[in-house]
Amino acid sequence: xxxxxxxxxxxxxxxxxxxxQEGCVLYxxxxxxxxxxxxxxxxxxKEDGSVSIDDCSNVSKGINAFLDxxxxxxxxxxxxxxxxxxxxxxxxxxxxxxKVVGKKVYIKTAKALETMGVTDxxxxxxKTVEEVLESADDSGIRFVVKDVEIKIxxxxxxxxxxxxxxxxxxxx
Length: 172
Fold this sequence. Notes:
The protein is an alpha+beta fold. The protein has helices at 6-21, 53-70, 94-99; strands at 25-32, 39-45, 79-83, 104-109, 128-132, 135-136, 140-145, 148-153, 157-162. It contains three helices and nine strands, in the order H-E-E-H-E-H-E-E-E-E-E-E. Strands 1-2-3 form a three-stranded mixed sheet, covered by helices on one side. Strands 5-4-9 form a three-stranded antiparallel sheet, with no helix packed on it. The chain has a three-stranded antiparallel sheet with strand order 6-7-8. Helix 1 packs across helix 2 (53-70). The radius of gyration is 19 Å and the shape is elongated. The termini are far apart.
């Protein structure tokens, strides 16, 4: 994951405060694009996942006032988007992983799993895992697949997201 510019830390701090004032948490932040196509995206969430359009609107208004006043983002104009992280949300911070323990996640690693101590022949050359997350702590994540333990440090994860599954077996 690439390094953020220093002004992003200030924007993230303010966005966290604005989100908290609206009863939300700042899930993630990204700044993408070039020239006139630049976009600052804020992803907000609530403990129960019930983020409304009004929540997004209120956070947008609050952070927009700060951004207009501080003129902190260098360069040309940009767009501001505030939304939820979605059902197949990306995972990048330890608390993101801790929140989805017990759910299926997709992980793409920087190197083969054998470099992380996995010796099972089915898994050692693999660079992707799509399984139920067994645990997550401050140093990394852990899967157990058919008695094979797979531990992956956060620094080895290139991409991670929650896998949205529809419960087909539930009766109405």
